[in-house]
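Supplementary Methods S3. Input chains for the assembly prediction are listed below.
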Amino acid sequence: MPSIDLIANVVVAGLLTGLVYGLMALGLSVIFGVVRVVNFAHGEMMTIAMYAAVALFGAFKLDPFLSVVPVAIVFFGLGYAMQAGLINPFITRPEHSQFMLLVAVAIIMVNVLLMIFGPSALNVQVDYQLESFELGPVLFDKARMYAAGMALATSAGLFAFFKYTSTGKAIRACADNNLGAKVIGLDVKHLYALTFGLGSACVAVAGCMMILLVDVVPTLGPGYTLLAFVIVIIGGLGSMPGALFGGILIGVSEALAGLFFAPSAKSMFGFALLILVLLFRPQGLLGRKP
Amino acid sequence: MNPRARLLLGALLAVLLLLPAFASNYVISVATLILYFAFTGQAWNVMMGFAGQLSLGHSLYVGVGAYVAAAMFVNLGIGPWLGLWVAILVCMALGAAIGFLAFRFGISGVYFALLTIAFAEFTRVGFDHLQWTGGSGGLFLKVAQREQMDLLNFRGPPAMYYYAILALAAGALALCAWLLRSRAGYYWQAIRENEEAAQALGINTFRYKMFAVLISSAMTAVSGVFFAFYYNNLFPEQIFHISRSIEIILGPIIGGIGTLFGPVLGAFVLTVLADGITELLALFGVEVPGVKQVFYGVVLLGVVMFLPNGIWPSLAKKIGVGK
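Predicted structure tokens for the full assembly:
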């Protein structure tokens, strides 16, 4: 039986990582909530952001916290273009058709990364990765703390955007009543593209933070896609607080599963939780009834 | 089926039957792969193409079917002819459990698809830690003498596997043609087009959706058993992986969802394309990993964007064979 101190440390680490997971899932949730398309290339976009941070660090010694800005801006533009050029024509097509479109995009993404960066694991090394704050027996890993803080700040910014700006309100109007939004003259296609851009920017920030915590290989993508699904469904597909809550839940349960069972078995708990939630509360823990 | 379609199908079958007589082992192995994907795609098509239930976790049935038969063979010495039936029963039980839970709780569309992924992934991690079947280290069948034919244990030369999968693919095609024109087939199509309307007309949608899942999982189990005895090695990481599920459904989607011949055509196009790209890259001496998959992705993107109904419907019209 591991000591209480060890358990506390593991829970704290899981919670902080969970916030970064939550930000990644938030991107997926926002996109689904508005556009009603499930982004099956989400985890692949996450790995692209991680590689972007690695490349910027390698070329200019740019700290991933500074990379956040350019990477998020580029991702916003790419996300906008992807929705406007690729996905908008698929909005009225059946789900399996949308699924295949994004799977094709995901396959291309994974393998272009493989062609450019090769199959070996890459990371960034900054001095604060080895430092930590101490609070009694509990260690707060500095990199994890900063990453979680950044994830929280980005999420707060996104909440504020949707709550207070008129564009944010317009996007929510599209999500609530698509026809009504069209009737009052909102440019729905533009707002969809904007939403996909914002979702992509969330992933970009999450990716830049994640590279401080784990190494990246091209094949991480599908795993992250599944992880993001698990999180948003547990939290409630389309619910923004739900995504963060689900992220923390999965982060902590993964960390504890790694401690008490085998680290390789950790994703099993997430999937078991997902199956239970789907069956007994399909709208998610924090989701509204449809 | 009009006379021209009959003639073309007969000619195709004749060519396939005679293939081992003049083709090299390489061609036979490619043809086996095509027929394998045609058969598995047909199984998935029953659920999605006919009844409209999107499963993205069909690797579950391939994997469990393969593991059940292989583990019985390796660990207990029970041959594949008995193992096959056990595998089918286990997969049908799994399909029934997933279908029952999903349909009883009213889960459909994207949520149903994600539920199927979740079950497949859950099982993958489970098999990674199941020592009786070798865990993540894999389960291996003894590779038999390729020249001797041992039908009882389903070991033998490539041509034997080829004929086995040809019989399965042809049988599946016939079964699906019959199903599509049966009462269940019409009910499925009604459910696919509009479930509420189908229910209003008095169709027991729960029962017929379950029926589709059971047939599909049973057929996919057979494909898993074939996979185990043809490839002789199983790893949870590979056989349950989501990319396997995607591989299964690519054929029917590219060929044409809900059509009878779509899965066959799709399997042919994809396998030949993949092999063609490999050959072409080897010819130019390109050895960057990932190039082939990028081509693959681009072609897939093109088909999804410009041929939303798949290749078969438009091709069928051109050669005048109806649906």
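The two ends of chain B are 8 Å apart (CA to CA). Strands of chain B lie at 139-140, 233-234.
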